[in-house]
Design brief:
With about 575 residues, the protein is an alpha/beta fold. Helix content is about 40%, strand content about 15%. The protein has a 7-stranded parallel sheet with strand order 11-12-13-14-15-16-17. The chain is globular. Bound molecules: 2'-deoxyguanosine-5'-triphosphate and calcium ion (2 copies). One calcium ion binds next to helix 10 and strand 4.
């Protein structure tokens, strides 16, 4: 049974939602949510971890009971606890929780009083005015629910890149195991490393006698077959993700890969170039009349159009074709260029591992230095550090650095930016650290003006060297807070502060467009994991993807510098 980490996390999340709707013990609910969070953030496949000898109970928040459930899910794809809950609460009801303004209590009322199970039913009830009379609701709430339900149903469901990567890797590996299959490549927005993916577009070349299409629609994780023909098929996986498969001839593979990688805008622009040369470009190849000019590889097609190969992350028709023509394409930063990671947590705040464990894990990922940046005191939920605990931590890091080889630990803090833009710790304390990262974790609802002023003031503090996750968005969960990014980037430039691309799978913040803006203003960008455990450094590759989409080169990324150069930069001017 094809089970990936996101499947397990999704089941635990659903159990927590159902328990929440039932009004179960909050500690029990929290246990499932924490486990879902831990597993969702793991960079390594659970099966691979088990194969390496890691015990599930070594994972933070996973005790014997949850470990047994993880095994059950990995073995069977199912969880009896969830099935039992499904007999008590209709499964679709959890979808109502996705509507802004509906918490578990209200969902319980809607389900029990009006027998609502789906968002469609909710919308109808709101239109009919059946909700306003319920206890705890009113005409205003009903109006809001109506609007939110409409937005929800109108919007297309997109998936986080890291989640799409898990399902994509699984399905690609499985396709490769089918007789006669030669190549498997995932194209589309996934290959362009967009932060969310609508559906997966898989390309395959295979021998004529390969049963690949036949097997594809019978993949165990398929919930529904939408279409299936000899050369193309579309299915929906159990998790709701759509997968398109195309089987293409080897001689067209490059042209097909280009076509299905997109973006549509990039394709349109390329077709225009082809037309200017009296050529015709489509997913089968590049043609002059009936003669094939190119098609086997992407390089051959670009070359015949008079262009160098363009990295997928740039293919948005945002100037890459002009740059390619002029020979000025950027040499994009790669994962291998990263020499360090400047944002991670230890057990001292809300991390799951000791400083030493984090440092060793960073070293295993080929890094030369890492900064431990636990939260500061005001972030009480994360057990933030006050001056005294921070001083002890600095001393501990000093001792570790004497002992550890092959990695240098920098002492740092992820300091809270308070509502007025001052910082949560005195300058005299910040001055003792190697690196200070400033972050907003509260008062997201401030007006644009006040939120911007708040961040600008923090950037003006002489100790601040990096602004963490500059927009605060959580993909699919929380919109960015309202700030004037242009002003923030200008200020960062003036103060020589770096902006972060936070690579945590839920964040990917800065977004690509702001990376590019930062580069244009000469602001350095730091690609950081924000790891809370030793298995979370894998996320860095998605951060690098976002930076590449923002046209960033090695020289634009702060943590590609070797340690002495970084230290010089940290001392500012
Ligand atoms: P997504 O799935 O919404 O995240 O975004 P994409 O870019 O993966 O889009 P998708 O799955 O609809 O189509 C995959 C690629 O196929 C797309 O990037 C470009 C190509 N494509 C699809 N429809 C058209 C079209 O009408 N014209 C052209 N030129 N290309 C298309
Ligand atoms: Ca797609
Ligand atoms: Ca598609």
């Amino acid at each position: 049974m094809p089970v990936v980490n996101a499947t397990v996390a999704g089941i635990f999340e659903e159990i927590a939602d159902l328990l929440d709707i039932q009004g179960a013990n909050p500690f029990r609910i929290r246990a499932y949510r924490n486990a879902a969070q831990t597993i969702g953030a793991l960079g390594t496949d659970l099966r691979a971890l088990l194969a390496r000898g890691t015990e599930l109970t070594d994972l933070p928040g996973i005790g014997d009971d949850l470990a047994a459930k993880v095994r059950e899910i990995l073995d069977t794809g199912k969880c009896r606890t969830l099935e039992k809950l499904h007999r008590q609460v209709p499964p679709a009801v959890t979808e109502l929780l996705r509507i802004p303004g509906l918490g578990p209590k209200r969902v319980r009322t809607l389900w029990q009083e009006l027998d609502l199970h789906t968002v469609e039913q909710l919308l109808r009830a709101a239109k009919d005015g059946r909700i306003r009379g319920l206890h705890g609701f009113g005409p205003k709430t009903e109006e809001k629910i109506l609007a939110s339900a409409q937005t929800y149903l109108g919007g297309s469901r997109r998936h986080r890149l890291s989640v799409a990567a898990q399902y994509g890797a699984q399905i690609a590996a499985w396709l490769r195991s089918i007789a006669g299959v030669v190549r498997v490549e995932i194209a589309g927005s996934f290959r362009r490393m967009r932060e969310t993916v609508g559906d997966l577009d898989v390309l395959v070349t295979a021998r004529a006698d390969s049963p690949v299409m036949n097997r594809f629609v019978r993949y165990e994780d398929v919930r529904e077959v939408v279409a299936s023909g000899p050369a193309r098929g579309t299915v929906i996986l159990t998790c709701g993700m759509q997968v398109d498969l195309r089987v293409v001839p080897e001689s067209s593979f490059g042209a097909a890969l280009m076509y299905f990688t997109g973006s549509k805008a990039h394709n349109v622009a390329l077709r225009r170039i082809a037309q200017e040369k009296d050529l015709k470009l489509n997913e089968y190849g590049l043609f002059r009349g009936k003669e094939t000019v190119a098609g086997r590889s992407e390089e051959s097609v670009y070359r015949a159009l008079g262009l160098p190969w363009i990295p997928p992350e740039l293919r948005e028709d945002h100037g890459e074709i002009e740059a390619a023509r002029a020979g000025t394409l950027p040499r994009l930063v790669t994962l291998a260029d990263l020499k360090g990671d400047l944002h991670m947590h230890s057990r001292a705040s809300d991390g799951h591992a000791s400083i030493e464990e984090m440092a060793r894990a960073a070293r295993e990922h080929g890094l030369e230095y890492c900064a431990v940046t636990d939260h500061s005191r005001r972030l009480a939920v994360a057990h933030g550090l006050d001056s005294e605990r921070l001083h002890k931590q600095i001393a501990e890091i000093g001792r570790l650095n004497e002992r550890l080889e092959g990695i240098t630990i920098l002492s740092g803090i992820e300091v809270e930016i308070l509502e007025d833009g001052t910082l949560d710790l005195p300058d005299s304390v910040l001055a003792r650290l190697d690196i200070v990262i400033a972050a907003v974790h509260s008062k997201f609802e401030l007006s644009r003006k006040r939120q911007t002023e708040r961040v600008l003031r923090a950037l003006g503090n002489p100790h601040v060297r990096i602004l963490a996750h500059p927009t605060g968005r959580l993909i699919g969960e929380r919109e960015p807070y309202d700030v004037d990014m242009q002003r923030i980037i200008r200020k960062a430039s003036a103060e020589r502060v770096a902006l972060e691309v936070n690579a945590h799978p839920q964040r990917l913040d800065l977004l690509d467009v702001y990376c590019r803006m930062a580069k244009e203003e000469g602001v350095a960008v730091a690609i950081n994991s924000d790891a809370h455990g030793t298995l979370e450094f894998e996320g860095l590759r998605f951060g690098v993807g976002q930076a590449r989409r923002g046209w960033l080169e090695k020289k634009d990324v702060l943590n590609t510098r070797c340690l002495p150069e970084l230290k010089t930069w940290l001392r500012r001017n």
